[in-house]
Amino acid sequence: MNDTVKYLLDEQHLPRFWYNINADLPKPLDPVLHPGTQQPISPEELEVIFPRGVIEQEMSTEREIEIPEPVREVWRQWRPSPLYRARRLEQALKTPAKIFYKYEGVSPSGSHKANSAIAQAFYNKVEGVKRITTETGAGQWGSSLSLAGSMFGIEILVYMVKVSYNQKPYRRAFMEAFGAQCIASPSNTTESGRAVLAEHPDSTGSLGIAISEAVELAAQREDTKYALGSVLNHVLLHQTVIGLEAMKQLEMADAYPDMVIGCTGGGSNFAGIAFPFLGEQLRGGRQVECIAVEPSACPTLTKGRFAYDFGDTAHLTPLCKMFTLGSSFVPPGFHAGGLRYHGMAPQVSHLAELGLIAPRSYNQLECFAAGLQFAKAEGIIPAPEANHAVRAAIHEAEKCRETGEAKTILFNLSGHGNFDMQAYTDYLGGKLKDLDYAENEVAMALAGLPSIG
């Protein structure tokens, strides 16, 4: 009997190409529009805030895009990441299902975000960029870009959503340890931040607001660019290294997933694990059910509208066709800060609209309960965001216990929760509660969607 628990790849098996799902979509994505003209945006117009290398990837329809060797060189510090068979969890659940998880918490910053941070820092360095501005929710992206900036000698300025800035001081300390500056958003350092504070002095912030602040500053200086941790095509592209590795590791396990699961806020880690398998399916390969899990308090895919919207609150960004709750919507301050975003990646949204992925939402308390159930079996405490994927995986394994089906379940454990112990302390102390979003606020935000001619 094969009782292998972890499946490891040598560094020589680190993927040399990213997978671009745009090449296999049955219907192409709707174009990104310039907010002023409402015409498809040009590469030249994007160069105000992004380096050319990133813009080329954003607009590419090539199936394979080569990973630069300097990026792979840094990745080798932790990649390929391990794939685990959750045998102890299977036993605890008394399920016939086979549960595998790809563990991205082995990166120096503790999550999958470093995959894109290293790549984006490299492309900015090539063009001589001196400073990068960005936003972060729970702090995983800010931590990862701070690390990347240190490695490539680039100054990093991070606007961290205020509720998470206060909830997660060690994330802030991590960024500062690598030389980055971290500012609570909304702040008094930008016009967009001051505008929010003038209307809502006690604002807890949102990713949309933090994006506005970061983009505003990036557009003001020629030596400064902006980097995004999720949502856009190039970010999702960089994360496909996760699924590409998982494919090889599952071959070692003589397995193929019936379902692939990832949590979704902007869409990066879900895309990273799911897109290579979806691409295989779209090219005539095996069918796989891809489940995108989001918080019930910010139900973008499950309750949002598929429409053109701004990616930020101050309307400084281009218009993207995506599932959205409205750019002015501020989600409640639940602990999975990385999932508190009003919109969803255009590629993920497009696949949901085509019925190729299955969105699902869970409440905060049941996700924390699932995270602890997983930790007691597998020994890893997940990040609050990753708990959503854990909850769905356990749910599916329990269904297999009832039906007797021995399905193979793969999920992305996108990061560890070692910086999130206050959230677990609050949960264990009975201080956390399930938070509901205000339906009237979503209705008002959706009423303000831009009118596209």
TrEMBL record:
It is an enzyme of class 4 (lyase). GO terms for molecular function: L-serine hydro-lyase (adding indole, L-tryptophan-forming) activity; pyridoxal phosphate binding; tryptophan synthase activity. The keyword Zinc-finger does not apply. The modification N6-(pyridoxal phosphate)lysine is found at residue 113. Keywords: Amino-acid biosynthesis, Aromatic amino acid biosynthesis, Lyase, Pyridoxal phosphate, Tryptophan biosynthesis. Its EC number is 4.2.1.20. Residues 76-415 form the Tryptophan synthase beta chain-like PALP domain. Pathway: Amino-acid biosynthesis; L-tryptophan biosynthesis; L-tryptophan from chorismate: step 5/5. Its cofactor is pyridoxal 5'-phosphate. It catalyses: (1S,2R)-1-C-(indol-3-yl)glycerol 3-phosphate + L-serine = D-glyceraldehyde 3-phosphate + L-tryptophan + H2O. One of its GO terms (cellular component) is cytoplasm. Tetramer of two alpha and two beta chains. Belongs to the TrpB family. NCBIfam families: PRK12391.1, trpB_rel. The beta subunit is responsible for the synthesis of L-tryptophan from indole and L-serine. This is Tryptophan synthase beta chain.
